[in-house]
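Continuing the series of single-chain predictions for the mutant panel. This is the parent chain; the variants come on the following pages.
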Amino acid sequence: MGTTTYSEGLLPYIPFYYVIWSDDLLSASEVQVVKKAFESDESLSDDDKTVLESWLDKDNPPKNGEIKKWQQLITESHATLIESEIYPLEIFSQKVAQYYGGDPKPNEQLQEIERNLGIQPNHYNHLFNVEVVHQPFSNHYDGFKIDILLNARFENELQVFRKFLEWPIFKWEIPRDKEEARSKVLEQLKVLSAHGWGALAYPKAYGGKENIESYASIFEHLMFVDGSLAVKFGVQFGLFGGSVHHLGSKRHHDLYLEDTGSGRLLGCFAMTETGHGSNVRGIKTTATYVHDDRVLVIHTPGKNDNKEYIGNALHATMATVFVQLIVAGKAIGVHAVLVPLRNDKHELLEGIHIDDNGHKLGLNGVDNGKIWFNQVKVPVENLLDRYGSIDPNGKYRSEIKNANKRFFTMLGTLVGGRICVAKGALAGSNMALTITAKYALKRRQFNDNIKIQEDLLIDYPSHQLRLIPKVASAYVYHIVLQRAMQDYAQSEHKDKRKIETQVAGLKATITHFSTVAIQECREACGGKGYLLENRIADLKNDTDIFTTFEGDNTVLLQLCAKGVLSDFKSELNSDGFVSVLKLLGTRISDRFATINPAYVSKVDSTHLYNHKFHLHALDFRLRRLTYTAAMRIRNYIKKGMPSYQAFLKVQTHLIELGRAYSEALAIKWYYDFVAKMDDGDYKELMYRLGALHGLSTIRENTSWYLEQGYFGSTKSKAVRQRVERLSTELRPHINALVEGFGIPDHLLTAPIAD
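Parent structure:
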C-alpha cells in the first residue's frame, strides 16, 4: 500500500483531473458536468468538494507541481488500465485509489464524467506511464443472445438454414468470369429449390409453409453467400413465383406453383421497359385479345419498348410479362400474362428474341437480359386473372371497376419484394460493418511514443464516428423491416395502400443507408477494403443497384409523400371542423416548443438520450413538412395550375417529406419493439442504440431544425457531441453488436475479419 496526502474521497478523482488538465477538456459545459458529478457524490466530504471545485478554476489552474504530483501518484500505483472496459478510466481510478487505501467501489458520478467528457482509451497511452492491457472489446454483452433477441420469431428455422449453408457449394469464391458465375449461382439455386427453401412463402398444398417472413430472412442470409444468389433467388421465387401466387387464380397455382418452388420451372419477371423505366403504367408492350382463337397476342411495338434488365432471362423457360391489355379494341390497362420463352431443349420459341445485358457493375452471377416479342400467341388462360379476366363471351370482367385502383391493387400484392430488397441491402451493409469492425479491433496504427504499442483503429474517435452510429442504425432498420414484413404478411385481406406508403419510404431510406454505409466501410478499411478477398468490394458493387430496382428511390420517396398527403387530406375531409381544430392545436403546440427557451436550449444527457425527444423531433419534422407541402400544392392549384404541374413545383419538397416520413416511422417502430422487451441490460443497450440512431438522424437534419427554430446553436452542438460520446460509450461492445447481426462464421470469409 502506498502513502499519499490526499483524502480517500479525492483519490478516485485524481486520474480524471489529470486527464482533464493534460488534454485541456475544460470548456464551460465540461466544468458543469464535473461539478454536477462531484456535488452529488455522497462519498465526498464538504472539504473534498471544495478542493475539487478549486481544481476546476481555469483562471487559477492547478500548479505544475500539483499535476506532476498526480502523475507520480498514478505511476507509483502500478495500476493496469484495460482498454475494453465499459468505463475504463473509472475502473482504473478505483485501482489507483485502492493502492493508497481507498475503497474500490463503482462510482456512478465518475462514470457520468467519463461518459460526458468522451475520454478515449487511447488517450491513456499518451498520459499515463502505466501498463495498458490491450483487450480490444468487452464481453459484457453476448452477440449470440442479441441475435436470438432480434430473430426470436423464426430462430429455429434460421439455425437450420445457417447450418445448411455450410454445404461446400455455398462457399464464397472470387468469381470474375461471368458465365462461370452464372452457372454456379444456377446450381446453388437448384440446391436451395430441392430442399424446399424457395417455396417457403407458398401455400402448403404446393410444397410451401405459407411463411413469407421466413422466406424474407432466407433471402437476407443469401446476401452473406453471394448477392447474385440472393437476387436470382428473389427473382425466381419472389417475383416470378410471387406473381403467379398473388396475381393468378387456382388454375395457375395448380399448373405452375409447385414446379416453380421446386426449381423444375424457371421463370422471370418482365415488367420494366427500356424506354419507360419506373413508369409501369406507361409500358408499351401489348397483349391483344383475339376472340375467335381465344388467344392473347403479345407484341413489342417499338425499338425501346422491349423488356429490360430481366433477371433469369437466359435461364428461364417462362416469363410473367406485364402488358397493356387490349380487349375488343379497348385498352383496359396494365395486366400480367404468362408467356413461354423456350422449349424443352431450351431453344427460344418463335417470336421471342432475348439479348444478354452483359457485364454489370455487380451481380454478374445474375443472367439479366432484354426481351422482345413479335406477335407471340398464348392462350387466354395465361392471363393472370385474379383482378381481371376475359369471360367466354370475350368480355373483360373485374370486381375493381376503377382502372387506377385496379393497377395499384395489382402492384400492391408485390410490395413484399420491396421489403426483401431492403432486407438484402441491409444484410450487405451488416456484413461490411462486421468485417470493418473486426478489422478495426485488431489493426493498429500510429502513436507518437515508439515504446508504446500502436493504437487500435476502433479507438480513434473519427473511426468510432464512422462505424458505430451506422451499426446502431442497422439495428433500428433490422427491427423495422421485420415489423414491415410482419404487417405485410398479415394484411392479405386489407387495403394495402398504407403499407405501400410505409414500404416505399423504408425501401428508399434503407437502401440509401446501406450504400453509404458500405462505402464508408470500404474507406475505413483502407487498401484492405479494396481487395476482392475481403468481400467489401463485391458488397459495394452488388448492392448498388438496390437503390434502383423494385422502385427507384427518388420515385419511391415521392410515392411515399403522396401517400402521406392523401392521408392528410382524407383526415381533414372526414373529420371536418374537428380535424381543423386538431391541426391548429398541433401547430400551436409545435410553435410553443420552437419558441420555448427551456426546450430549445435543453442539452442535458437525460433529455437528449430520452426516446421521447427523438420521437418528438422526427415527428415534428414530418408534421411540418406535410403541412407546408400541402399548403404549397393547394396554393398552386388555387392559382389555376394543373395538379401534375403543382406536384412538379414541389418535387424536392416531396422527396424530403418522404424521407421525413420513413425516418419518423422507423424510430417509432423501433422504440415500440424495445418498450416490449423484458427489462435488463439488453433493453438498456437497445435504448442506447436507438438514442444514437435518433440523434444521428436529427444531426443530419440540423440545418432544417435551426431554420425552423426547433433548437438553437447550443442544442445543435450538444446533439453533435452526444453522437460522438454515445459512439465512445458503445465502443467496448462493438464486437458483440456486429456478432449480433447473426452472420455465421463460415460465411464471414474475409481474411481481415478473422
